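Practice problem: predict the structure.
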Amino acid sequence: MKPEHQDLILRACAASSLRVGAKIQTLWSGYGEIVRLHLEGCDRPSVVVKHVKFPEEAEHPGGWNTDRSHTRKVRSYQVETHWYQNYSTDRSCRTPACLAASSHGDEMLMVLEDLDVAGYDQRRTSVKDREIKACLSWLAHFHALFLGVTPEGLWPVGTYWHLETRPDELEAMADAELKAAAGDIDKKLNECLFKTVVHGDAKLANFCFSQSGGDVAAVDFQYVGGGCGMKDVVYFLGSCMEERECEKRVPGLLDFYFTELKQAVKKDVDVVALEKEWREMFAFAWTDFHRFLLGWMPGHRKINRYSKQLTKEVLRKLKP
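Answer:
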């Protein structure tokens, strides 16, 4: 670690010394790493540092190494830094506090609160009802908190699969009917009356759980931006349930999400209109992500019967 980075961390945490601990993960396509640092001489035993360093040659698992892909990733880290420095949430949708951030040349550094120390030290690769509902509650409170907020400094339209940022994947699609309808689906989602700030990458892996699994915090805000809350909900549900589970459980889980959302929004919000509009957007949001997958990785396991059925419904609705 560079001396200037060490100095920044020591100053931000009022620590006397630091020790580099375990690497938590390597960032997508080799764009840096996330590490835990152990501190001495202050009231924080540790912090998590997201250290972004743009590679000379990116390694994309799907082979999408383009200038457009690189520009999108660079922007995503700028957005994330802006998010952590300028936005905050409450306990109902917990995120790590940002203690310091810096950007110089091809490197960026975010010094974040260690959520393990805060009691969110569990990660899940599979989840039961309690954990799914904890994440949906987090999303509902997050969407309620930012309902009507302009995504200043963030992506104008959040999520990493937003159509405007993915022309290469659209071009690669073999499904001609969905390809032709992609713009209309995107327009429908963008013209929602009720807009919020979406997390943009709300998969199971980006939630940190308490011991009981009943309380969660979220990380990874590279694709945070404006949009319909359903985008986060469909992406989360698809990340933790197989097609049969989706068919069986989605209706009840959507009911739970909307109950949480309606309780969390400000009193002057027309909750009946909000729920009606976003319920109508559910299939559109699911199909929008399905569109991305078909172009990005046509053999992906999430391209299943449930997704195809929702896509059929949406294409039927769009027919004049």
